[in-house]
Design a protein that fits this description.
The protein is an alpha+beta fold. It has helices at residues 2-16, 30-34, 55-58; strands at residues 21-28, 43-50. The two termini are 18 Å apart. The chain contains three helices and two strands; from the N terminus they run αβαβα. 5% of the residues are buried. The protein is elongated and about 40 Å long. Helices cover 39% and strands 26% of the residues. The protein has a single domain (2-58), classed as GTP cyclohydrolase I, C-terminal domain/NADPH-dependent 7-cyano-7-deazaguanine reductase, N-terminal domain (GTP Cyclohydrolase I, domain 2). A two-stranded antiparallel ribbon has the order 1-2.
């Protein structure tokens, strides 16, 4: 999931040349929902930020 989030951010940043890009991905992990923890709502959230000028400000975005 981390790699996919980073790849999406990289592609958008390279293709559109925006000033900044923030990609937030939320996914349910079947390994936690079906095995082990048995938590159906178990989700992982990853974030990728691109853009030098906005990196400090956007990195605090939740």
């Amino acid at each position: 999931q981390e790699r996919l989030t980073a790849q999406i951010a990289d592609a958008v940043f390279q293709q559109l040349s925006p000033r900044a890009v923030v990609v937030v991905a939320r996914a349910t992990h079947l390994c936690m929902a079906m095995r082990g923890a048995h938590k159906r709502e178990a989700q992982a959230v990853t974030r990728a930020v691109r853009g030098e000028h906005y990196l400090a400000r956007i990195s605090n975005f939740k």
